[in-house]
Hints:
With 501 residues, this protein is mostly helical. 71% of the residues lie in helices and 0% in strands. It has helices at 2-6, 9-19, 22-30, 34-57, 67-92, 98-109, 125-153, 159-162, 167-174, 179-208, 212-224, 240-250, 266-274, 276-303, 309-327, 335-344, 350-359, 372-390, 400-433, 438-449, 455-459, 471-486, 488-495, 497-500. α2 (9-19) runs parallel beside α5 (67-92) and α5 crosses α23 (488-495). The chain starts with a helix and ends with a helix. Residues 166-176 have low confidence and may be disordered.
Amino acid sequence: MAWIRSLPLFVQLLGFAVVMMYIPMAFAIRLEDWDVARTFFYYTTFLLILLSLVGIAVSGYTGRNTARNYLVTVFAAFLTIPALLALPFNYMISSITYFQAYFEMLSCLTTTGATLFDDPTIVPAPLHLMRAIVGWVGGFFILVVAMAIFAPLNIGGFEIFAAGKGLQKSSNQIASVDATQRLTRYGSQIFPVYVAVTACLTLALLVAGDRTLVAVSHAMSIISTSGISPVGGLKGSNSGYAGEVLMFLFLFFAVSRHTFFFNSDREFFQNLKLDKEINLVLICLTVIPILLFVRHWTAAYEVSAEAELPSVLAAFWGAIFTVLSFLSTTGFESAAWEGARNWSGLGTTGLILMSLSIMGGGIATTAGGVKLLRVYALYKHGQREIQRLNHPHSIAGASRRVRLIRREGAQIAWIFLMLFVLSLGLVALALSATGIGFSDSLLFATAGMSNTGPLARAAGEGFTGYANISDIGKMILCVAMILGRLEALAVIAVLNPNYWR
């Protein structure tokens, strides 16, 4: 064990991802699917032997344990891990190419959840479990990276707090930050909570009536916000509205980073009460579902003045669940969502779902998107500017931290938003060059950049599937998914010539 801990982080990450593939192998053995079990065993064992040889070769290597060096490791891990996991996946599904299997695994690892298989029955059950596990591992990975690497680098949303505190001083301190200790500390703190929360949701879904594979996969998908389902979404599950209520409660883990550091003291509950991200989500869950419900109800009233109470309640619940699902970049649609559209006779509200996905969840969570704290900083800045239009000489009363978020924090948030929008436009333009229509290109680009793969199906009127995109288009989406997962600031930091010098 000490030898494993002494290995470089890159080798440890590859080994951990590969070892997790023994779980679907055990599941295949339980199902007596011996061909799949043998394939998992052969490929996993071979890759572990290969990684052991690599570990022996680099066991004496001692690199600089700074956050900047680990940032390159994280970037390389997102490129390499899917390449290894795609080997058994491609072998067991001969109808796809190796690159398509790589796209599927990268989509899972980045918690995007964009799948090439519109019909889930094509994929064997152990491979569905494999996809869910890869997404679950990717969610845990990004949680630890956010706290251990992004935080000292003042990226990933933490730059809002660092505004006005002397960025030059913090930049100089980065070179001396030992990221190994931070990775070990936060990994040991987050992993037990991550596993316990997943297990609790799994048991709750089993009690609600879901099958074992569906309960485990949906629990992993909710906690990691990957949106991966072995039955094509919540409409294929047996837990019904009870399961949706349970998932709705656990989706709040993607709203604030404070939820993964639970303790029973008064300070913890005070932090939750004052958390601006949670408050912003509660506002969205109040305003947007009401607007969506009024939209459905108005259209239904024009058709028939008599509306049954169950249909009304189902439409309202479908709006609430779907709003939080896409706001957390999970992408699950409520079973009542499609019923609400049929009830009103209206089409999908694609623009609203796209906006929610772009807004994203909390910083240092498994959610993607722009992040709620940046949205809050821009909102406070806009609110202050409107006040100054009415009262140019007014002085805003607030704490120093709020003033920093409203000024320097809003400026940095605006810069990131422009980088996000520019990247979104470039990805959409590149997809258009492959022959995809403008609206579909924008939709696919938003799904990739916000790590919300199911968005393309939920928001698109004529969605034809990711499988129909050309290999060049899939390659562009791979870049978009990594860029959305690591964020533009992290990628710029890796590609910065000053860093390489």
